[in-house]
Every structure is written in structure tokens, then in C-alpha cells.
Amino acid sequence: MISQFFVLSQRGDNIVFRDYRGDVQKGSAEVFFRKVKFWKEDDKEEAPPVFNLDGVNYFHVKVVGLLFVATTRNNLSPSLVLELLQRIARVIKDYLGVLSEGSLRKNFVLVYELLDEVMDFGYVQTTSTEVLKSYIFNEPIVVDTDRLPSLGPAALFVQGAKRMPGTAVTKSVVAHEPGGRKREEIFVDIIEKISVTFSSSGYILTSEIDGTIQMKSYLTGNPEIRLALNDDLSIGRGGRSIYDYSGSSGSGSVILDDCNFHESVHLDSFDVDRTLTLAPSDGEFPVMNYRITQEFKPPFRINSLIEEAGPLKAEVILKNYAEFPSSITANTIVVEMPLPTYTTRVNYELEPGAVGQMTDFKESNRRLEWSLKKVISLAAAHW
């Protein structure tokens, strides 16, 4: 069971706090933030998602810059509590439309009503947006989406003007359009995290894709829908060598190493025609998670050149090549480079005519950050 739940801002401000059992001290939020902010244990500069301090277990996840934290004195499964925190964040986002410090402060009455229904005396009751609609009566206060930051990974690549307005997926699932009408809409996003290791000469050493098919439904009555995937989709390599990439070029086949589906997905016809059948509940949820290690062409290629310029000095030249068509623009790119722990000073120089680029030396964790507002073809930096 959970003793306390609270949400902290990046500054450590207590935005939401609910004490369910009264067996943990009231100042636990401040104790937690100080410990996380100045974490120096195990030779790490970032606190793990789960740790124990003075007999209290702290669990936390970071969602859009906010810290969702749970405390307990009991020995609970870390996976269970971390998943619960993610689901609470998702439920709050479903109801508010936008998950931010401002939306939480404006809708604190609705948020506390949600928390009272999600948990009772520290025991989880439900985290289903659909079920909670029968018990929640407060209406959300809409937050001005024009002041919000970009959509994150889903808005990384933009092709021409083919982009849905940001308000399309920042609406509350319980709010109605002006006039009392509800627009029948459903949105599907494919979000992929690409992990690639390059050699110093720019060749790919390892590559992996972790992907999610994310769905957000505003449909009334939960009608059954069908989602068709690639006909040539296959799961597992069927005994072939992991180095056999013959299907990655020309044939158009997609090979998933493994995948899992949401509990509402029916796989009756998946083996026949690669079609998923589901009755989407209100709110946002992952339809499918998958992982690919099949060889692919990454969107970026990074070349680095490191030369010693003296006994205590080194010069680094980084070049970031865009490997996608010129009709596509990549927005808000950040290149990070770890430096030796004894680094004390860094000078940087961007290529002539560089616009929308910034460089910074993060002395606390000895990292270089190269931020690019927009990438079309090639960018270079010199340290």
C-alpha cells in the first residue's frame, strides 16, 4: 500500500500532496527533493527511481519535467509502484488535456478528486479513465496551449505543413466542444526511440529501435476499430542469424524482435492478415510496444575527430549529417558529448553562418550540449 503521493515541480515546489496513511513524516517531500537534487551515492549523479532513506521507500518517475513520487514503509514491488505512478500521470493528462505545472495548479480540485477515486487508504482502486468518468464530476479548466512547449518526440520530424495542430491531442477526454457537442476523433502516433552507436569514422556499430503505437480516443460508445499493420510484418527471426539483414532492403519487410500489446487488443486475426482489433477506451494508451534490431538507416550520422593540442588540451570536431530527404525538417535536436571528469574549461566554435544553434558546457556532469533548433542537411561544431 502507498503511504503518500505527491507531485513536485523542477524547483521542488509541492504542487499536489496526498497523505493516505499518516505513517510517514509530513516533510517527506522536502527530504526527497534535497536527496535527489544533491545525490552523490554509488558514484552516480542521478538518483535511481527507487531508494530507501530512514526506513521510508521512495519511488519516483519524471513526466514532462514533473516528479511523481510515492512513499511507503512497506516492502512493495518497485515495478508495481512505478507503473502506478505512470498510470496516474496518464489519467491526469487524459482529464486535463495538458500535463504541466500550470494545468495542475488550475485544476487542483479535479486532481484531488481523481486521486481520491484512484486510491483509497493507499490501496489502488482503478486507473481506468473510462471507469473514473462515472465518479468524477468536476470539469477541467482549459489551459492555453499556445504557451506550451513543443510536442516532444512526436513533433521531431515535420514534412512540409502536414502536421496536426497541437490542440488536437491536448484536449481533455471529458471536455466538450463549444455548444455542448463532442467531436468524434481518434489519433494514432508512432513514437520511436532510436539508439545507435557510431565508430569514430561514422560507421554504425550497433542499432536498435524501441517503438510504441500510441492511441488517443475521443470516440463515443467505444466502437470496435481495426488497425492494419504491414502485411510483411514478422516477429522473431525464425532461426536466421542475427546478422542476416536480407529482408531489410528491397522487399520492404519489417522484422520485430519482440512486441507486446495492450490488454484491450484482440489478436484473433493478427496471424492471418496482421490486423489488430480493439475497442479503445477513453484517453491515451499504448496499443503496441515493439523492439527492432534489424539493420536500418538512421536519420542522423555523426562524425567525430579528436586531436591532442597539448599535454592538457584536446580539440574535438563534431559533424552531424542528416540522412533524410530535404523535404523533411528535424526540429529541436540536442547532441550530448561526455567529457573526462577532470575537464575544467571548454571553448566552442560553430560553423560560420550557423543559425538557431547553441552550445553549453554542463560543468556539474561534465557534458557538452549542442542544441540545434532545426536540421536539414549538415551541421558542424568545433571545441
Describe the protein's architecture and organization.
There is one protein chain. The longest helix has 19 residues, at 78-96. The chain is mainly β and 383 residues long. The strands form 7 sheets. It has a 5-stranded antiparallel sheet, sandwiched between helices. It has helices spanning 28-37, 78-96, 101-106, 108-118, 129-132, 270-273; strands spanning 4-8, 14-19, 50-53, 56-63, 66-72, 119-120, 123-124, 157-159, 186-198, 204-217, 225-228, 233-235, 254-256, 258-261, 265-266, 275-278, 283-292, 300-310, 313-322, 328-338, 349-350, 357-362, 367-375, 378-382. The protein has 6 helices and 24 strands. The N and C termini lie far apart (51 Å). Residues 148-168 and 239-251 have low confidence and may be disordered.
> What is the N-to-C succession of helices and strands?
EEHEEEHHHEEHEEEEEEEEHEEEEEEEEE
Mean pLDDT: 80
Structural class: mainly beta
Rg over CA atoms: 24 Å
Tell me the layout of helices and strands.
Layout: E1 4-8, E2 14-19, H1 28-37, E3 50-53, E4 56-63, E5 66-72, H2 78-96, H3 101-106, H4 108-118, E6 119-120, E7 123-124, H5 129-132, E8 157-159, E9 186-198, E10 204-217, E11 225-228, E12 233-235, E13 254-256, E14 258-261, E15 265-266, H6 270-273, E16 275-278, E17 283-292, E18 300-310, E19 313-322, E20 328-338, E21 349-350, E22 357-362, E23 367-375, E24 378-382
